[in-house]
Amino acid sequence: MATTEWPYPGSRWWKFDFHTHTPASKDTNGWQRAIGTPNALTPETWLLKYMAAQIDCVAVTDHNSGTWINLLKAAYAAMKALADQGQPPAGFRELTLFPGVEISTQGGVHVLAVLDPTATTSAIDTLLGSVGYQGTKGDSDGVTSRGITEVIQAILAAGGVAIPAHADARKGLLQCRAGSSQSQLDANTLRQVIAVEGLQAVEWCDNASPWPDCVAQAASRFARVLGSDCHSFQGAAVPGSRYTWVKMASPTLEGLRLALLDGNDVSIRRSDEGAFDPFRVPAHVITAIEIENARYMGNGQPARLACSPFFNAVAGGRGTGKSTVVHALRLAARRDQELTALGQGNEPRAHFDAFRKVVNARDDKGALRADTVIRVQWQHEDVRLRLLWRADGQGTAVEEWRDDRWQTSPSQSVNPARFPLRIFSQGQIAALAGSGRQTLLSIIDEAANVESLRQALDEAQRTFFTQRARLRELDGKLAGQAEVERKLDEAGKKLAALSQADHAAVLRAYAQAQHQAREVKTLFEQLKDIATRIAELPENIGLDDWPSQHFTEQDTDLLAWRKDVDLQVDQLRLDLLERARKLDASIESLQKDDRLAQWKARALAAQQAHTALQEQLVAQGVSDPQAFARLTQQRQQLELQRKALQQMQGDRQTLAQQIDAQRARLTQKRQAITQARQTFIQNALAGNPHVRIAVVPFGFEAKQIERELRELIEATDERFADDILLTEDGEASSGMAFDLAQADEPGKIGAVDSVKQRLLDVDATLGGRLRNYLQRKHEKPEFADHVLAWFPEDDLRIEYQRDHRWTSISQGSQGQRSAALLAFLLAFGEEPIVLDQPEDDLDNHLIYDLIVRQIRENKLRRQLIIVTHNPNVLVNGDAELVHVMEFGRGQCFVQQSGALQESAVRREVCRVMEGGHEAFARRWKRLGPEV
């Protein structure tokens, strides 16, 4: 029923047809013939045609007539009344009628006049009278007595918008002679018309048409709009065939006038300019921010800022709560660790820490109370979520909108993957260029999807640690291998001595029979195990059932095929069970085999002979008649141990090779992270004139590497400076961290490996205190594992362009550092981004070239929320929604919200922001003194 569903506040795009006709125009031949017949076109049918074409705004511009305007308005009012009662006519959707007329001026040029939606037929009649039109209403052949310049001035004086019709075509103001850029009309006349104050737009039928040379520069300022010029509902020029997208807060004449002043680059887009989806919103959007019971905001009733999915500006003077909104959003999104990572004493962190304190007494510092609640409504595609943060730490963190109410979300996880968001507090961006480079690196990782690569590295490290632990376990067991060999040799010698007697043959036969019995027993155990495993296989063979809701009676062929598949699988299970049964039977048969029985007889004979021999030896007074049996059994056990240890030795060799390969894999996966970062930055900053960033593998700053090296060996104090990093006059001069920092990129891996080896070998070149310390660390074998798997973190070398030369960002001012980093941070990402006064320390040239341009590009793909005290940011950045903050009666509150095209919003911006009036005047310089 309504226009295109758009639940968001602020400016939006409206589909506008600037040039239409009704049967009031005499050259609508088909409609004229139907007048007085049952097929006559009615105002309701005319309206429904434009509604069906999804047109939001229609300028009714009949030839020199406004006859149908009142008819259309009455018909629409009746249709709207039914819709409001819940009984809309079929095909009804809301649209706005802009009364207008296509005036045939003296000389034959046509001009469209578009009046306020409240205008009526009489307003058109009055306008036609003022320009001296005496011809037949609805006829395009008659002309005004006034020239085109006077006609345009009359339209403007009537409060309307004047648009030369089909200006580049027949009866058009700016038509050129065929095959040239020379004007059809007199050049002086054209210059006079173009110079009319208040002329803002032309209807331009073909974007490829040239401007006439004589006025090309002056006319290029005009917005070029498009209309269907529909004279019937047949052929090419029908509703929806040609139209113009116009960005306005609401469909009003004032909104239209301001959009035309913005022109085609900002608020006007023609239907012939290619695919355009003005209602596509980013995947993640903040729809509202609420602050309740904070110390200086949200008392009595929550302070609420609804949000557009595009560019939201929060403006206001000092102390009006602008930054409070940013801090509150950071708390709700659990992004406080991003400031914590900047370190103690950092100004953005200090401001945030001061804000988040809960006050208990009047003189306490802090901006929160014990009952402060922050709510952030979030939209992810079709899912509506709400983040909650409470100062008392109680309650749920995430709610979902289900069944027309907020309910606790099954998942209470609040993380960057679920709620992707970039928040940059005042001064934070400049900090990222200095000591906060590692924080910037984490931002890059999140945007470049490095998390999966880091997970792969972590998994590779876990595998490496497991392999190393297994190696130590094997080495512990293999430590007894020499002793097993000695005992086996000793037992063999004793048995050899016993074997030299006359009973040697008996003993050998008995030993052989024992070996054979053991092998036969093992064979039958293996056969029984095979039968058991085959019998168990059918239990694990089966296919998942298909969900019945995905298949209907029309799928009988597919379901029959599935049934055959199931039968084949069932048969496979039966076959396996039969195989297992047959193997059991075979085992029984094998146990009764005559050949096996013959061997058992031989083995029994050997055992009996051995028993007789033992009795004979006892009778002969042998002191240890069981020596041979004991030694034979001992040798058998030792042989088993040796066999197991030999297998273990082979396993160790294989494992050692796997560990070497895993170390190489660790290096590859670590390098993959660096490469992903480099690729991302290269793509994000391609052609960027403000900043360039290089990812330096394993870092380049000795102090940063020192911190990581000390964390590795768990010596985070100042010990061992001579070996780790020695500084002279504040500059690094020697040490392992210095060596790593100085290594060039091709030699970085070798330098890292060298440091690792020195730590593992407790190298003699290291100082005595460090060697003693490392020897104690090596008492825990896991220490070596972590050394082998360690890699220093990458670092970022950032440069900005100054005087057409690239300069290290460390040499720039805070404003230059902020500008460079801001250019980078705005160059990528589709998640919402919140900037707190990004224009600080930037001159006006940078504000426009950097911030304003980037805002216009960014809001096409992501939501922007920018806190600013510079009117150029919100005015020239074309904010879809503006919140003007104010302070009064001890509270910060939203004084005014709306689009820039709303006069109340403009007045508040001018009131609270220095230079606001000038910013509006520059943007809409042709609007006149009242901006």
TrEMBL record:
GO-annotated molecular function: 5'-3' DNA exonuclease activity; 5'-3' RNA exonuclease activity; ATP binding; ATP hydrolysis activity
InterPro entries: ATPase_AAA_core, P-loop_NTPase, PHP_domain, Pol/histidinol_Pase-like, TrlF_ATPase
The ATPase AAA-type core domain, residue ranges: 784-874
One Pfam family of this chain: AAA_21
Keyword match Cytoplasm: no
Keyword Coiled coil: yes
Coiled-coil residue windows: 443-501, 573-665
Keywords per UniProt: Coiled coil
PANTHER family attached to this UniProt entry: EXONUCLEASE (PTHR42924), POLYMERASE_HISTIDINOL PHOSPHATASE N-TERMINAL DOMAIN-CONTAINING PROTEIN (PTHR42924:SF3)
Annotated protein name in UniProt: Chromosome segregation protein SMC
Organism whose genome encodes this protein: Ventosimonas gracilis
